[in-house]
Amino acid sequence: MQYDILIIGGGAAGFFAAINAAEMDPGAKIAILERGKEVLSKVRISGGGRCNVTHAEFLPKELVKNYPRGEKELRGPFHQFMTGDTIAWFEERNIELKIEEDGRMFPVSDTSETIINCFLSEAEGLKIQVRKSEAVKTLHWKDSHWEVGTQKSTLSASKILIATGSNPKIWKLLEKLGHSISAAVPSLFTFNIKDNRIADLPGISTHAEVKVQGEKLQDEGPVLITHWGLSGPAILRLSAWGARELHDLDYNFNVEVNWLPGFSSEEILEQLKVLKFELAKQQVFKKAQFELPKRLWQNLVTASKIEGNITWADLNKDELLRLAQQLTAAVFQVNGKSTFKEEFVTAGGIDLKEVNFKTFESRIQNNLFFAGEVLNIDAVTGGFNFQNAWTGGYLAAKAMTS
Ligand SMILES: Cc1cc2nc3c(=O)[nH]c(=O)nc-3n(C[C@H](O)[C@H](O)[C@H](O)COP(=O)(O)OP(=O)(O)OC[C@H]3O[C@@H](n4cnc5c(N)ncnc54)[C@H](O)[C@@H]3O)c2cc1C
Q1: 67 lines ligand 1 (CB under 6 A)
Q2: SS3 of 375, please?
Q3: How would you classify the pairing of strands 154-162 and 368-370?
Q4: pLDDT-based confidence at 345, cuts 50/70/90?
């Protein structure tokens, strides 16, 4: 079988590339090879079954800040195709996207089926062959074409796009072609912590500053206390930016939490001294200060070894110091990680230096293109991982058909 373009991997990036390529070059013979029985399975379960398609961030220089790996490389591509283009692309196909408060964008239907049905009907209309249960096992460049071997057949193509996500087997094949692979490590996880200060507070969310001790890793934003430890956007961002460092620490490290972001221990100590006078007769434990959730405040007071019946006036210097410390630099020991809402992303993949980001073509081998998570690109949660798949898929399609 001879093809102009073979897309390897029937996921988000593969379908987006195939559809755009078929539209840009209607005469091209295009097929998608998918190892599974079903295509688009990650799209189906994405965003809790709602598919967080993209994010309402419309400046490339801001958008790239959400990519711990790929920040520099995606800047150029985002000037060609980014969030606004994604919205328009789906709108042209009668799919309206809505923006949630935190900027995440979903189909108005609130189901990923809408996205899947769109891709499947576009692919059918454009006569893209979708070959399921065909896992690519071999790749050879022979006499100016690619020979692609699956367990069922040998196919040939002028150009191939690798859109296999984080599949280690394909990385092995690509290594044989001369590519370097950055080893895969998990990204986007929550921190396992067993600690009395947060043990009885699952569900409480508060704005905080978080820092990994001994590393240059810090973030600020909502922190959510869970049954297992700490989660929420600030923690997930730390896990993504620190994916490699935290893996090297075997997920055993200390995280320092400032529950009053923007304020130092010294500043809070001064504030506590003011409260000592202003609230002299009140019990410290009873009423939360600094707009902290009440039970968190109480746990921090207890952790500062301040007795429940002590009034503000009775606080001694050491107690004030300990409280300031708990409020602004509470250290928690992390032992292990957990998956965030089953959403996991892998950091690792094709070394970005080996890819031309104008075309998403390999710099090592002509007529070999990449898109999506197969590259050493990943993002924090919020629709950014799919945006990488759309952008890469679109630009690779453009290059493969020009
Ligand atoms: C539970 C969950 C929820 C998520 N939710 C979101 C979200 O809402 N928003 C967001 O932006 N990101 C989300 N992500 C991340 C997002 O799903 C991925 O970044 C995205 O799917 C990557 O697209 P891709 O096309 O590169 O890879 P994939 O979607 O993984 O597709 C790769 C395809 O290639 C196939 N394949 C692999 N090897 C071969 C082979 N040898 N031969 C043939 N086919 C092969 C695979 O079977 C697969 O179908 C979520 C991830 C998970 C796990």
Answers
A1: no
A2: strand
A3: parallel
A4: confident
